[in-house]
Amino acid sequence: MTKRTVRLLSGEQYFDDKLSIFVNRNVESYELTEHHHDFLEISYVSEGLGTHHVGNDVSNVSRGDLFVIPMGASHVFRPASLDKKRPLIVYNCIVTMEAARNLLNSFPGGSELEVLLNLHHITRYKDLTGEVQHYYSYLHREFSVERPGREAALHTGLLQLLIYISRLQSGHTNPQVQSLNSSMDQILALLQRDYAMPFTLSQLSSLLGVGERQVQRLFVQYTGETFSGYLQNIRIQAACRLLVSSEIRITDISAAVGYQNTPYFNDLFKRYTGLTPREYRKANRS
């Protein structure tokens, strides 16, 4: 039997005196051999298909797969194909254990997350909402561009990522709760993106697979607002941006954010902002 070669990746290759966090976006290939490291690694499959090799175990990976890889655990990602049009892209956030512990100890409640630093085996999660993609895009951008607040931004992003993973982990103990939480996250993301669409409580009830009364309770629990209040708030915020950043007529802005009845939109806008759309545009441009 051929003996596997497992290479050590040292933090000295990635960290310097100023920064104990490293973030990259890697197009996986067959060049990197199986390896372990002396730091904590959190990896996220952003695009493509491939496999993850952990010792003698091989598992398929795809977009949304998230891995917490503790010190000493050996692994490597492999693409399903060498076709450059179908790459396997993995984001990696690595941090020294000292920096990770210092980060959690510096925040009230941070000790709740330390379980993620004490894992002995590689742990896999599934990001069903795409939220982790946003965290990694933020972390990669902050790491790649040196500007004021860079170190603080990276630690803030890492903390948000750890909080999210902790919630995924707790959801694993109750599949029904995890499914409902993930569904609500997707509903909120849908409303944020397509706020101008004529959503109804009945539609959201069908998407979540629960009754309309429970949908209302979930909205209040998640957002502090009713469904209609939450949607109105998103639409008015979008209208505010359009009023300030464009010359679009108020009638067209009303339609663009989901209100075909302009007088109703005007009344609603004033109720939320204290100004009519015209007054708001004038005040914020002066």
Automatic annotation (TrEMBL):
Annotated ranges, domain HTH araC/xylS-type: 185-283
Keyword Transcription regulation among record annotations: yes
| Entries under InterPro entries matching the protein | AraC-bd, Homeodomain-like_sf, HTH-like, HTH_AraC, HTH_AraC-typ_CS, RmlC-like_jellyroll, Tscrpt_reg_AraC-type_HTH
Molecular function GO labels:
DNA-binding transcription factor activity; sequence-specific DNA binding
The alphabetized UniProt keywords are: DNA-binding, Transcription, Transcription regulation
According to its UniProt record, what is one Pfam family this protein matches? AraC_binding
Instruction: Enumerate the PANTHER family for this protein.
Output: ARAC-FAMILY TRANSCRIPTIONAL REGULATOR, HTH-TYPE TRANSCRIPTIONAL REGULATOR EXSA
Please report the name of this protein according to its UniProt entry: AraC family transcriptional regulator, L-rhamnose operon transcriptional activator RhaR
Q: Which organism is it from?
A: Paenibacillus catalpae
